[in-house]
Amino acid sequence: MRSRHRISDLPAVREAHPSMQETDGTPARRFGLPTAICLVMGNIIGGGIFLLPASVAPFGTVSLLAFGVLTIGAIALALVFGRLAERHPHTGGPYVYARAAFGDFAGFLSAWSYWTMTWVSNAALAVAGVGYFHVLTGGSSSKTTDLVIALLMLWLPALANLAGTRWVGAVQVISTVLKFIPLLFVAVAGLFFFDPKNLGSFTEGGGSWASGLSASAAILLYSYIGVESAAMSAGEVRDPERNVGRASVLGTIGAAVVYLLGTVAVFGTVAHDKLAKSTAPFSDAVDAMFGGQWGGTLIAFAAVVSIVGALNGWTLMSAQMPYAAAKDGLFPAMFGKKRRGVPTAGVLAAAVLASLLTIVNYVSGSGGVFEILVLITTFSATVPYLLATAAQVYFLLKGEREKVHAGRFTRDMVFALGGFGFSFWLVAGAGYAAVYQGGLFLLAGILVYAFMAARRTATEEREGEPVAAAEKSAEPEAEPELVA
């Protein structure tokens, strides 16, 4: 059996050593701090922001306070990931840290949860895209039509991924440019049309401000998923010990500025009652500012392109995590094979599972499909965060890497404990239904781990038998003992 602290077994370390690299592609270029910051911001600002102002409007303006609290928590997580990257500057992020600290099972749970989060996120993004597609077509459509549109949004990016990394990169460049245009436009222009009367009450629905804060924060966490992006790609970042932490913090702050200004602008330009029922809040904000439909249609088009681009990037990430785990024998071997630089089995599995989840939610006839999917994603995302922050606490207490100044130790411990408590609070705020549904996804992975662990143990025993036999045959025979 392999030791749980045997970091050389990790795929990240194999990438760091030419003798352990794969030969199916050219060496990856390492990127610097500016590119790493863009990576974090691009992954954080996906398509969810285009619908989230309407999702949190029913809670009142307390959701703006939740956005501020969430930003502080996200920055704390970014600092933790930066410190962990100093200890383990390898590709894999939360998976690497959990496995290094607590062994294969913890690493598997982190990988399984992160993988679940990616394809559940894709389903949520597809649902968000349907609302903006309605703006482009000038009205609503049947559930069947909505389902077909959502499935197309899932499978077109999957096909781009299957075509190879060149197509993935082209789609990402185009969509990233269009992603920031509507957000920055609404954030800046909306400040000149801001009307405090549109804000509504601080709390809605008769609940307490604390319950509204917690519930809206659970939905808003979806906006900050991706804070770990630089840590996930630490092996490709130049000087990761320094740049991963900087990129994580600066990228998170940059995304937070765009988020907060954009959300405040939407809250101040769209009447609260209308915003709570809106399926395209940024489009409604532009229409409220300039009148007519042209502005909203333009925003809706940019939002659809942005969502497709986000689906393109997250589809690739949903394949990379099981690929890394498969190389360690913690996921089925089929996930560890690439074609045109892309793990095809992971892409197909994520697309199929996201499609099934989308179908179930549409066919069930329940309302608030996007909110339900976001809450499931919230739970799945917090498991790797909890394990990563716990790993940081473990490393600090054990002190296996280095002895640090007492002040720095205290600061790092505060951030680690704060990040753990913050993630745990978000699980509690997600609600019973989200924890139940997300827990089912997590528990289903234990059976997969049981099969993979048993299979790997059997393989190691078979491979060890010839070695043991050879070592035994090489041993000199003991001389017979002379008896007087």
TrEMBL record:
<feature type="region of interest" description="Disordered">
    <location>
        <begin position="1"/>
        <end position="27"/>
    </location>
</feature>
<feature type="transmembrane region" description="Helical">
    <location>
        <begin position="64"/>
        <end position="84"/>
    </location>
</feature>
<feature type="transmembrane region" description="Helical">
    <location>
        <begin position="147"/>
        <end position="164"/>
    </location>
</feature>
<feature type="transmembrane region" description="Helical">
    <location>
        <begin position="372"/>
        <end position="397"/>
    </location>
</feature>
<dbReference type="Pfam" id="PF13520">
    <property type="entry name" value="AA_permease_2"/>
</dbReference>
<dbReference type="InterPro" id="IPR050367">
    <property type="entry name" value="APC_superfamily"/>
</dbReference>
<feature type="region of interest" description="Disordered">
    <location>
        <begin position="461"/>
        <end position="484"/>
    </location>
</feature>
<feature type="transmembrane region" description="Helical">
    <location>
        <begin position="291"/>
        <end position="311"/>
    </location>
</feature>
<keyword id="KW-0472">Membrane</keyword>
<feature type="transmembrane region" description="Helical">
    <location>
        <begin position="176"/>
        <end position="194"/>
    </location>
</feature>
<feature type="transmembrane region" description="Helical">
    <location>
        <begin position="341"/>
        <end position="360"/>
    </location>
</feature>
<feature type="transmembrane region" description="Helical">
    <location>
        <begin position="206"/>
        <end position="227"/>
    </location>
</feature>
<dbReference type="GO" id="GO:0005886">
    <property type="term" value="C:plasma membrane"/>
</dbReference>
<keyword id="KW-0812">Transmembrane</keyword>
<feature type="transmembrane region" description="Helical">
    <location>
        <begin position="409"/>
        <end position="428"/>
    </location>
</feature>
<feature type="transmembrane region" description="Helical">
    <location>
        <begin position="248"/>
        <end position="271"/>
    </location>
</feature>
<dbReference type="GO" id="GO:0022857">
    <property type="term" value="F:transmembrane transporter activity"/>
</dbReference>
<keyword id="KW-1003">Cell membrane</keyword>
<feature type="transmembrane region" description="Helical">
    <location>
        <begin position="31"/>
        <end position="52"/>
    </location>
</feature>
<feature type="transmembrane region" description="Helical">
    <location>
        <begin position="434"/>
        <end position="452"/>
    </location>
</feature>
<feature type="compositionally biased region" description="Basic and acidic residues">
    <location>
        <begin position="1"/>
        <end position="17"/>
    </location>
</feature>
<dbReference type="InterPro" id="IPR002293">
    <property type="entry name" value="AA/rel_permease1"/>
</dbReference>
<protein>
    <submittedName>
        <fullName>Amino acid permease</fullName>
    </submittedName>
</protein>
<keyword id="KW-1133">Transmembrane helix</keyword>
